[in-house]
Amino acid sequence: MECKVLERRCAEVFSQYVNREYGGPSLDLQEGLLIAFEQGTEVSRHGGDLSLCPYNAVSDPERFLAWVEGFQCCSVSRTL
Question: What are the distances in angstroms from CA 77 to CA 3, 34, 39, 50, 64?
């Protein structure tokens, strides 16, 4: 049950993130961002840290920010 709650929470956070940063979903943009977001949540779930982000804030800021958002979403959910 905890997994389902976390999945719903992450989906909600991702949707809010895309709406806030990009004004709504775009299929092309959303697919790449979702992958980065999910990678961030996985690293957080397995006890990793922010230094494991594979994206560069300068050369790939969209995916970098999506990864960090996913990481923080899962980190916050674990502490609640």
Answer: 11, 18, 16, 16, 20
Tell me if 41 sits within 8 A of 8, measured CB to CB.
Answer: no
CB contact at 8 A, 39 and 63: no
CA distance 7 to 61: 24
- Using the 8-state DSSP alphabet, how is residue 50 labeled? G
Sort 53 into a burial class: Cβ within 10 Å, 0-12 / 13-18 / 19+.
buried
- State residue 79's pLDDT score: 47
**Is the torsion defined by CA of 2, 4, 7, 11 positive or negative?**
negative
Name residues of the chain where pLDDT drops below 50: 1-2, 79-80
